[in-house]
Amino acid sequence: MDATTLRLAETVARMDLATLSDETVTQAKRRIVDAIACAMGAFEEPFCETIRGVSARYSGTSTARIWGTDLVSSVEMAGFANGTVMRYLDLNDTFLGASAGHPSDMIPALIALAEATGASGAALIGAIVAAYELYCGLCDATALGPQGLDQSTGAALGAAGGASRLLGLDVPATGNAIALAVGANLNLYNVRCGTLSDWKACAGPNGARNGVFAALLAREGVTGPTAVFDGKGGLSTVLQPLAFRDDPTAPPRLLETRLKAYPVCYHGQSAVDAAIELAAKIDPAQVARVLVETYEASAKMMGGDPTRWAPETRETADHSLPFTVGVALTTGRLTSGDYAAARLVDPELRAFMAKIEVRECAEMSDTYPARNHTRITVMLADGQGLSAERLQPKGHPDNPLSQEELGEKLANLWPGAVLPGARVAQVIGLVDGLDRAASVAPLVDALCPRG
């Protein structure tokens, strides 16, 4: 086992609930509520129904439930199904470092494994914190996208670590799980380039599924590559530089992650918030030009490609500043319903989007990722100009969603036609007591009709 693999395996071993601060435990619970909210909000989407149908064809001796249904699948496929549904709305959490990513992509896979193995709520929380530590550690160790790799590579790594904690693996076995996951899951950045496909929602959860599988193999004694990071042909030869943080006293990375207020790529959160403020002050018919000034990562991801002015898929639209800002300025809101197929080709919206310019601001780039600074200036036909800007969007650690707002997010996304509305308060209560729960089964019960 090489030095990096050993260090990461030892990091996983340290993430016991007894060693975590109250704030870390609280924030882990908030990520669980947020992930469940996102999954419930996408439940009725046709694509999500397809994924559930595929997953329900699989079974095994170790099974877990598919949320919102009475279906059971293998632990890996249940985690994949629940994770893909959770990711679909692009409303789950974000980490921003040298690379960006969505670490809660791993939470459904870890809940499925905890359910299948009868693990305690405390064990699940420790596993989630460990998974975040590895996922976010990779995202901050190197710039993945410019080197051709996708953030979902981190989901395989992180889930392998989290699953190893749930399975009670020792450090050598955890190292093998990590090596098995990393050696087989270098996913391509093309997932998030150009016209985005259905796979955008699947990539992270698929990485998490593979990370769980790697840990299950390691539990049976299967060994992984012995120098998957530092050796010949290892990850450090693919990604340069590759520098994981080596400070056992540093606060857990989970505390650096950010929740979302709007169903849009995180780089668009500040822009949408500012646009909604401006919408109350303008008549869209009188708008002559719109300038969106933002930091480099936002400008490149959401305004650096012609597809962002003519999105053909939901996945491209929620990564488009012209589309999301256009919707917010003309309607005063941005909801999942705004990504309907007819809305993507709405001629009035397309005409408005043509007035929008996206420009990188060097000063804003200099403050990223600590800030997500964006300014929108609207020029009206009479020559008047109006501006609004945000340094941090709602959900950033410096501008957090309150507990009440997080509860409202769950309530607003809850599929009342599928599950009783009373379950919302039940879920919040169950997650709040998770660190004292002998099992995660009651929580999953609340997410399934027969519960």
TrEMBL record:
<dbReference type="InterPro" id="IPR005656">
    <property type="entry name" value="MmgE_PrpD"/>
</dbReference>
<dbReference type="InterPro" id="IPR036148">
    <property type="entry name" value="MmgE/PrpD_sf"/>
</dbReference>
<dbReference type="InterPro" id="IPR042188">
    <property type="entry name" value="MmgE/PrpD_sf_2"/>
</dbReference>
<comment type="similarity">
    <text>Belongs to the PrpD family.</text>
</comment>
<dbReference type="Pfam" id="PF19305">
    <property type="entry name" value="MmgE_PrpD_C"/>
</dbReference>
<feature type="domain" description="MmgE/PrpD N-terminal">
    <location>
        <begin position="7"/>
        <end position="239"/>
    </location>
</feature>
<dbReference type="GO" id="GO:0047547">
    <property type="term" value="F:2-methylcitrate dehydratase activity"/>
</dbReference>
<dbReference type="Pfam" id="PF03972">
    <property type="entry name" value="MmgE_PrpD_N"/>
</dbReference>
<dbReference type="InterPro" id="IPR042183">
    <property type="entry name" value="MmgE/PrpD_sf_1"/>
</dbReference>
<protein>
    <submittedName>
        <fullName>2-methylcitrate dehydratase</fullName>
        <ecNumber>4.2.1.79</ecNumber>
    </submittedName>
</protein>
<feature type="domain" description="MmgE/PrpD C-terminal">
    <location>
        <begin position="262"/>
        <end position="416"/>
    </location>
</feature>
<dbReference type="InterPro" id="IPR045337">
    <property type="entry name" value="MmgE_PrpD_C"/>
</dbReference>
<keyword id="KW-0614">Plasmid</keyword>
<dbReference type="InterPro" id="IPR045336">
    <property type="entry name" value="MmgE_PrpD_N"/>
</dbReference>
<keyword id="KW-0456">Lyase</keyword>
